[in-house]
Design goal:
With about 180 residues, the chain is of the alpha+beta class. The chain is built from three helices and nine strands, in the order E-E-E-E-E-E-H-E-E-E-H-H. The longest helix is centred in the middle third of the chain and has 13 residues.
Length: about 180
């Protein structure tokens, strides 16, 4: 069911209290007022406190912008499963979900965006990037990300300060 061209992507539909309403939506067809779906953003953090970020491919919306890894939860997936799947699809690395924590959720537009922090050291040379989505990955400090966001080369997530506070309050090696 996944894929930009060959397959239809289906989402579970939720109400404003995040209860499933018993229907599905097709990606790209929009949701009705008061309906939501689940999106995940994955922020890997290494032992040095740096974040693994990805550069969006030339063929996707907002091309060449640095961003977090992420995507929509598919029908039947919970947030953690979506986190693991999206990370593997886009980066080609198995997420160690025993070292992942849901930092917080941001309700926005037509989605609940679950922001995950994953404590995992990853060698960027081991990444197998999904060419249709990702053109590069690299480690960046919170200051680097703030600077890129101010320059318009990193997606300016409204929650960045909350994310950096969440990670900083737990120290570089734990959640």
């Amino acid at each position: 069911m996944r894929g930009r061209n060959a397959f239809v992507e289906l989402w579970d539909v939720y109400n404003s209290s995040r209860d499933k309403v018993g229907k599905t939506a097709v990606r790209g067809e929009g949701l009705e007022a008061g309906e939501y779906h689940v999106v995940v953003h994955i922020w890997p953090v290494n032992d040095d406190g740096n974040f693994l970020i990805q550069k969006r491919a030339a063929c996707v919306w907002a091309p060449h912008i640095w961003a977090a890894t992420g995507g929509a939860a598919l029908v039947g997936e919970d947030s953690a499963a979506a986190c693991a799947r999206e990370f593997y699809e886009e980066i080609g690395i198995e997420a160690d979900m025993s070292k992942a924590r849901l930092a917080f959720t941001v309700k926005r537009g037509d989605s609940f965006c679950d922001v995950w922090v994953l404590r995992q050291n990853i060698d960027t040379d081991d990444c197998k990037l999904q060419a249709e989505e990702v053109s590069a990955v690299k480690w960046a400090s919170a200051d680097d990300i703030r600077r890129k966001a101010a320059q318009g080369t990193f997606w300016a997530y409204r929650y960045l300060d909350d994310l950096f506070s969440f990670v900083s309050a737990r120290g570089p090696k734990r959640l």
